[in-house]
Structure formats: structure tokens, C-alpha cells
């Protein structure tokens, strides 16, 4: 099956019991994974002791664990506040390193990394229906759509430099370079993926 698109107004997010999805052989586990893959998310209820330990157990037992980063010895990454640190996003004289919320192929469920980071804090994410934008672009500017589906852009990611805010030690460096198309079509010409911003996302 393929990813299913939906609107918030007419979609009920699938809900599962925490204990049931922890069993990898259960129907609840399979249905939860399918919900994440097809709908983009699921709600988990019934966790008696919410917190980092329960969240890690959910990631390990229900979703197969977090994918290990090749530059360190443990699976997840940690971000901490540093005194005097400034965001390079606002300093054009410094290199803007890529964000750290995506996985290295084969892709897992990168959002779990964000959940680990925000488990005791807050965060805001903005979602855009890229497929709807692409359909509108194709209708209003076919040539622009064709260009984005034909030509790629240089993307490079330094996996060590992009984690300067993490207190963890890294055991080696890794730089990945690709030349992806922003709009990626299948053999029939149908849009199947939108890749932007960095090497994998």
C-alpha cells in the first residue's frame, strides 16, 4: 500500500494501547506501524509512567529501536544549552549546518528522535502538504514543475559538524554528498517523493 493523504477536519488519528504495541508479534504493533507509515502518525495511550524510560521502551520494542548514528557509540543524540552560544542561522559569516532530525538510509522513524528531545520540553513543527503544492505548481506553472522534476541540486551533510550542540563524543567523521531532484517521479511520471533542505529529507 501507499502513503495515505488526509485532512485534519475529516481524519481520526488511529489510537493504540501502550502495552499492546510493545509486543512485536501483536496485531496492535503491526497496525500502529502501518498507521505511522501510511498516515504519518499514531496516538499511544495507556502508559502508566510517562517519561524518557517509557519513550525509549516504545522506540525499542514497538518500532525496532532508534537507528544508530555512525559517528558515535549510542543510538540517540542529545542537545544541551550552551552558555554564550548563538544560532548560526542568523550569522551569514558562519556555515549553517544541517538539522539533526533525519535518519541515515535505510530510513526509520526519525520523529522519535524529536520526541526524545521534546519529552520534557516544548517544540513546534510546521507541516505542509508538499503533494498538494506540487499539484498546484504543475497546474499553474508546468515548466517550473518540469524543471524541479528534471534537475537536481547539490546537497552535502557533515554529520559531525552538524552536531556541535551535542555533548556526546564522536568516534569518526562522515560527509555525505548527493544530487537529488526536488520532485521525484516514478516510472509512470507520478510524483512519489519530495526531497528538499538536505541530503535525506
From TrEMBL:
Please name the GO terms that the record assigns under molecular function: oxidoreductase activity
Domain TauD/TfdA-like: start-end pairs: 13-158
Q: Which UniProt keywords apply?
A: Oxidoreductase
Q: Which organism's genome codes for this protein?
A: Emiliania huxleyi
- SUPFAM superfamilies from the entry? Clavaminate synthase-like (SSF51197)
Q: Does the keyword Oxidoreductase apply?
A: yes
User: Per UniProt, what is one Pfam family of this protein?
Assistant: TauD
- InterPro entries, sorted: TauD-like_sf (IPR042098), TauD/TfdA-like (IPR003819)
Q: What is this protein called?
A: TauD/TfdA-like domain-containing protein
Amino acid at each position: 500500500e501507499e502513503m495515505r493523504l488526509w485532512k485534519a477536519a475529516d481524519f481520526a488519528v488511529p489510537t493504540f494501547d501502550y502495552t499492546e504495541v510493545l509486543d512485536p508479534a501483536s496485531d496492535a504493533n503491526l497496525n500502529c506501524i502501518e498507521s505511522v507509515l501510511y498516515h504519518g502518525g499514531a496516538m499511544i495511550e495507556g502508559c502508566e509512567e510517562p517519561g524518557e524510560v517509557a519513550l525509549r521502551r516504545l522506540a525499542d520494542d514497538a518500532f525496532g529501536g532508534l537507528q544508530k548514528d555512525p559517528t558515535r557509540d549510542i543510538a540517540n543524540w542529545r542537545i544541551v544549552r550552551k552558555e554564550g552560544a548563538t544560532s548560526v542561522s542568523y550569522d551569514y559569516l558562519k556555515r549553517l549546518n544541517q538539522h539533526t532530525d533525519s535518519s541515515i538510509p535505510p530510513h526509520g522513524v526519525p520523529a522519535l528522535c524529536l520526541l526524545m528531545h521534546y519529552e520534557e520540553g516544548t517544540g513546534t513543527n510546521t507541516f505542509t502538504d508538499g503533494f498538494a503544492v506540487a499539484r498546484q505548481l504543475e497546474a499553474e506553472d508546468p515548466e517550473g514543475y518540469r524543471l524541479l522534476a528534471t534537475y537536481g541540486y547539490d546537497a552535502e551533510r557533515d554529520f559531525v559538524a552538524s552536531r556541535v550542540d551535542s555533548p556526546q563524543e564522536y568516534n569518526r567523521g562522515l560527509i555525505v554528498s548527493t544530487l537529488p531532484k526536488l520532485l521525484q517521479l516514478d516510472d509512470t511520471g507520478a510524483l512519489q517523493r519530495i526531497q528538499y533542505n538536505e541530503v535525506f529529507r
